[in-house]
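Lecture 7 notes. Example A: sequence first, then its C-alpha cells.
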Amino acid sequence: MQYILPTGCNSIDNLLGGGIHYGMVTDIYGESGTGKSQLCFTICARSAEYFEHSQQARVVFIDTGGTFRPERIREINLRCAVVITNMVRTMATAGNQVKSSEITTENPNMSKTQQSDHQRELMGTSVSIYAHMKLVLKDVKSDKSVFKAVLLQPSRKQEAYYTITGKGVTDLR
C-alpha cells in the first residue's frame, strides 16, 4: 500500500502524482525566493492537519538552513500544535557552523515512553536511494507573485503554477 501526503497545493500535488510519497526522498530546490521554505512550512502545517487524529503520525521539520519560523507554521494552520525542541543548536563540523531546528507535534494520547519508542521505530525505517523525486521551483514573474514547479525526476512534461499567500503555497486563482 502506497501512502501519499497532500502538500496543500493541488497543482503541485498533481505534478507529484498526488503529493509527497511515503518512503521516497523528495528534493525540493530552486533559486532564493522561489518558495522552498514556504512549501516545506505548508507541507508541515498541512501534515499536522492531515494526521490530526492519528496516534501514530508525527510531523518533524528539520531545518538545515536556519529558515524555520514557528509563527509561520501557526499562520498557515492555526490548529497546528508546534512544540519546539533544540530551536537553535549550533554544532562545529569540520570548522563549519551548522544550525538545525526541529518541530514536532505531540500526541496527548500517547505517553512519553510510547512517543520515544515510536520515534526510534521511525528512525529505523530505511529509504531506498532509488526512490527519489526532484522538484525544482522557479519564479515566473519578477515581482515574485507567480512561481512554477517542474518535476525533474521522474521527468514529466507538465508544470505546476502556484503563489505564496498568508496560508502558504497555494494554487493560482
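Example B, a different protein, same format:
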Amino acid sequence: MEWTTVAAHGVATAALSLTWKAAITAAVVIGVALLAERANAVLAAVLMGLPISIGPALALLATTHGEPFVIESARYALASVFGVLAFLVTYVHAARFTGLWGCLIAGYSAWLSATLAVGHLSLSIPGALGIAVAGLLLTRLTMPRQAPPALSSDPHPLRFIIVRGVLAGLAVATVVTAGRALGPALAGLFASFPVIFGTVAWMLATLGNNDLATATLSHADRGMASFISFCFCFAVLAPVVSVWPALGISLLISVLVSVGLVMRLKHTSANGSPKT
C-alpha cells in the first residue's frame, strides 16, 4: 500500500506542476490574443511574432530548473526560430497539394526535423544567431508569398482564443516539466513549438478556408524579428545580469522591435503592396 500512496502522490504532484505552468502560459497567450482582437490586422500579425510562448517558457525553466539550465537553454531557444520558419514555409508549400490537416502534419514534421537537427549542434550565441538569421534569409528566398488576406473586422469567436491559449500552455508546461529529462538544448528548442501558428491556421481555415490560413502564414515570418531580438538579448544578458532582469530587458526590446515593424508595415501598406 505504501508504494501506491507514494506513486499517487507523485502523479498528483506532477499533475499540479503541469497545471499551474499551463495556466500561467495560457493566461499570457490569451491576454495577447485579446489585445490583438482589439487592434488592427497589422498589429495582430506582428503580435504573433512576440515571445508569448518562449518568454513564459524561459521564466518557468529558470524557476523549475535553475539559472544555469535556462542560460544554456537560451542559446537553443534563439536557434529554434529555424524550426518555426521551417513550419511556416512547409505549410504554405503543402497547401498547393493538400488541405488544413495535411498542411499541419507536413509543417510540424518539418519543424521536428529541423529542431532535432539543430539539437545535435554545440551552439555558441553567435552560432545560434547565425542559424536564426539563415532561417530568415532562406524563408525570404523560398516562401511563396500570397496576397495578404482581407481579414474580417468582426472579432474571432472566444473559443478559438481560449483553445489557442490552453494548447500553448500545455505545450510549454510539458516541455518545462520534462526539462530535466530533455536537457537544456532540447528544452530550449521544444519550448518554441509553433502551437500559436498552428492554432491560427486552424482558426482561419475553420472560419473561412485554408487559402485564408495559407495567405496569412505566408506573411507570418515578418514578425519573427521580435522573437529573435528577445532570445538574443536574453542569451547575452542572462549570464551577466541574472535571469529576471534579462527577461524584463529582453521583453522591452522585443516590444520596441514590434513597434518598429508595425510602423514599417503601415508605411509600406500606405505606399503599395507589402514587400516580399
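Note on Example B: DSSP finds 13 helices and no strands in the chain. The first helix runs from residue 2 to 37.
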